UniProtKB/TrEMBL annotation:
Heme b binds at residue 199. The record marks 69 as: Transition state stabilizer. This is Peroxidase. Ca(2+) 2 binds at residues 200, 217, 219, 224. It comes from Hypholoma sublateritium (strain FD-334 SS-4). Residues 1-21 form the signal peptide. Its cofactor is heme b; Ca(2+). The active site is at residue 73. The lineage of its organism: Eukaryota, Fungi, Dikarya, Basidiomycota, Agaricomycotina. It comes from the Eukaryota.
Length: 368
């Protein structure tokens, strides 16, 4: 890993911006260009510009997907009893430890990509703040995604996360629900929104060898509810663990399904929550935004942080239509799982069926 040594050696006593009193009027920042309600947030504007233009390149692509994944893997690795971890940037500072955890397979790619930016702005922000800022900015690159609050002032990480706390794509629903419950996610809707919403703008990484960049639904560059339809289709093959990677052909050509998504859509604990988000864009976006905000504050005291949400640009509105069935399929191809409500009626896309393009990888862009 190119930047692992540098990130691990990053000083753990870098200065943080102080919390200023709440202001009600915008004031001109020292740069003479930007304005802010809280002048403590002024130093973030050049960081935001750098992340958007040079890291995310102003698109909902592989880098944005990776930044969002990093938010989750950094934050949820926290134990109420064992200590360490949480939304503190430990996955970057103590990467030599945390990247050995099986659930963090492939995270080294996004850390290599984001590492130079994190180091460049290390005098302005702690690793935990930078990861959360990049994640919040990644969402506003994706049409339909919510604009989530951003709080600044996380201390330098003191220790690596304990092992075996990040859910894996091969875990049972009971295990996933238990892990989320340990960090304060108490309803199936919260869990399903965070998992499904994240996978709405995501694709296969090293977890599926040889299938790098295959999306999880038909619209990986749009934050929408198509994931909740595509995973519910009958006959899709989900990926297995170890030597059981097996078949990867799905009912949606060019996509791949994670076992955990397949099970969440069908298990009695979560299937009605999963179905409830199909064609319910507003509810899904709201629940997802609340869930990611909760993740961003794990291990933190919000009262000790500065609300710098004003530096996050406006979200891109969702302008797409309702979720649909792939060409040639009908409602009979939906594998009904929720026992208390019928799956929403869906239209079928005109044919013939075509394969969903793979998500261009950041390394591919560099080579072009």
């Amino acid at each position: 890993m190119v930047f692992s040594a540098a990130l691990s050696a990053l000083a753990l006593s870098l200065p943080l911006l102080s919390v200023n009193a709440l202001r009600t009027r915008r004031a001109l920042c020292p740069d003479g260009v930007n304005t802010a309600i809280n002048l403590a947030c002024c130093s973030l504007f050049p960081v935001v510009q750098d992340i958007q233009e040079n890291f995310l390149t102003n698109e909902c692509g592989d880098s944005a997907h990776g930044a969002l994944r990093l938010v989750f893997h950094d934050a949820i690795g926290i134990s109420p009893t064992a200590g360490g971890g949480g939304a503190d940037g430990s996955i970057a500072t103590f990467n030599e430890t945390e990247l050995t955890f099986p659930a963090n397979l492939g995270i080294d790619d996004i850390l290599d990509e984001i590492g130079p930016f994190l180091l460049k702005h290390s005098n302005t922000m702690s690793p935990g703040d930078f990861i959360q800022l990049a994640g919040a900015l990644s969402l506003v690159q994706c049409p339909g995604a919510p604009r989530i609050p951003f709080f600044m002032g996380r201390a330098q990480p003191k220790a690596a996360s304990p092992p075996n706390l990040v859910p894996q794509p091969f875990d049972s629903v009971a295990s996933i629900v238990q892990r989320f419950g340990e960090v304060g996610f108490t309803t199936p809707e919260e869990i399903v929104a965070v998992v499904g919403g994240s996978h709405s703008v995501a694709g296969a990484d090293d977890v599926v060898p040889g299938l790098q960049g295959l999306p999880f639904d038909q619209t990986p560059s749009v934050f929408d509810t198509q994931i909740f339809v595509d995973v519910q289709l009958r006959g899709t093959i989900f990926t297995g663990q170890g030597g059981n990677q097996g078949e990867t052909e799905t009912s949606v050509l060019g996509t791949v399904r994670l076992q955990s998504d397949h099970l969440l859509a069908r298990d009695s604990q979560t299937n009605c929550a999963w179905q409830s988000f199909a064609n319910n864009q507003a509810a899904m976006a709201e629940a997802f935004g609340q869930g990611v905000l909760k993740l961003s504050l794990l291990g933190q005291n919000q009262d000790e942080l500065t609300d710098c949400s004003e530096v996050i640009p406006a979200a891109i509105p969702f302008t797409g239509g309702p979720a649909t069935l792939p060409p040639g399929l009908t409602m009979n191809d939906i594998e009904q799982a929720c026992a208390t409500a019928a799956f929403p009626s869906l239209a079928t896309q005109p044919g013939p069926a075509t394969s969903v393009p793979a998500i261009p990888q950041a390394d591919d862009d560099d080579d072009s």
